[in-house]
């Protein structure tokens, strides 16, 4: 088992995953803090937006706008990495699988996000978040994937700290790389350049009990790694949303 005091360990006796993170110098740093058991418990963290740091050089992470817009939907990580000019050995996908999963779900559901404009909002209900609550800045990658679209993602689950219940977070820039001189640190989103906007709302509790507090009629409902067959507490949610106008519950 990992110790919370990482510095007392040498790489030779770190668990394999911790050793992998340490090989990129990101173990227990920035957005990576919750990627192993050495990190803090979500319930003990008072500020879910504690960091927006990749703690990697700019060549390994998407910290700025892409060099060009997508000409076709992405079909693989290889295509994404090529588009974002990232080397295949970059570990960024470990964290980016949250926003990229949403992107893939929207592609599968054939929701025409490209038709949304500044007067419309693409609404997503995100069920059962856990460690991604400590990695919220990575969802900024949706700004690059859906340029010109206003996205509102409402995250609901028992692990949302009670002190953060009902909180609204607005994200307008990407997580920073480790270079102090990189333009990502001085970047300020401009509506004239990119009218994308990302709003995150946090709700504590189970979905079928908090749905009335959330924006109605979401375009998509996503429950990543939900274990629907393993947890009977999902049944009221499934029954409640079965006849609703949504595109998917995963």
Compact summary:
The chain has helices at residues 16-23, 77-83, 93-109, 141-145, 207-210, 235-241, and strands at residues 121-127, 150-157, 168-171, 197-204, 220-222.
Describe the structure.
The chain has helices spanning 16-23, 77-83, 93-109, 141-145, 207-210, 235-241, and strands at residues 121-127, 150-157, 168-171, 197-204, 220-222. By secondary structure, the protein is an alpha/beta fold. It has a single domain (16-39, 47-65, 72-239), classed as 3-Layer(aba) Sandwich (Rossmann fold), CATH 3.40.50. The chain has a five-stranded mixed sheet, covered by helices on one side. Helix 4 links the parallel strand 1 and strand 2. It is globular and about 50 Å long.
Helical amount? 10-25%
Can you tell me the CATH architecture? 3-Layer(aba) Sandwich
Give the distance, in angstroms, between the N- and C-terminal Cα atoms.
31 Å
Number of domains: 1
Largest sheet composition: 5 strands, mixed
Report the sheet-strand fraction: 5-15%
- SSE order: HHHEHEEEHEH
Contiguous helical run count: 6
**Under CATH, the topology is which?**
Rossmann fold
- What CATH first level would be assigned? Alpha Beta
- Sequence of strands across the biggest β-sheet: 3-4-2-1-5
The shape is globular
Number of strands: 5
Coarse structural class: alpha/beta
- What is the alpha-carbon Rg in Å? 18 Å
Which blocks of ≥5 consecutive residues have pLDDT under 50?
A: 1-11, 188-194, 245-250
State mean pLDDT (0 to 100 scale): 81
Pfam families: MSS51_C
Organism: Brachypodium distachyon (Purple false brome)
Protein name: Mitochondrial splicing suppressor 51-like C-terminal domain-containing protein
């Amino acid at each position: 088992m990992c110790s919370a005091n990482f510095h007392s360990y040498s790489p030779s006796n770190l668990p394999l995953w911790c050793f992998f993170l340490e090989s990129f110098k990101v173990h227990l740093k920035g957005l990576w803090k919750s990627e192993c058991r050495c990190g803090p418990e979500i319930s003990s963290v008072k500020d879910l937006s504690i960091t927006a740091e990749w703690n990697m050089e700019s060549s390994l992470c998407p910290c700025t706008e892409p060099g060009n817009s997508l000409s076709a939907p992405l079909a693989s990580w290889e295509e994404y990495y090529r588009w974002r000019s990232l080397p295949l050995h970059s570990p960024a996908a470990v964290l980016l699988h949250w926003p990229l999963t949403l992107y893939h779900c929207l592609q599968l559901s054939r929701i025409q996000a490209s038709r949304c404009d500044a007067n419309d909002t693409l609404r997503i209900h995100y069920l059962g978040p856990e460690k991604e609550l400590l990695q919220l800045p990575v969802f900024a990658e949706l700004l690059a994937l859906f340029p010109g679209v206003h996205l509102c993602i409402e995250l609901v689950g028992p692990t949302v700290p009670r002190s953060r219940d009902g909180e609204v977070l607005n994200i307008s820039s990407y997580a920073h790389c480790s270079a102090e001189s990189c333009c990502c640190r001085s970047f300020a989103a401009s509506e004239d350049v990119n009218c994308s906007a990302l709003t995150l709302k946090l709700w504590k509790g189970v979905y079928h009990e908090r749905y009335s507090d959330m924006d109605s009629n979401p375009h998509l409902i996503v429950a990543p790694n939900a274990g629907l067959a393993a947890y009977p507490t999902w049944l009221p949610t499934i029954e409640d949303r079965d006849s609703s106008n949504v595109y998917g519950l995963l």
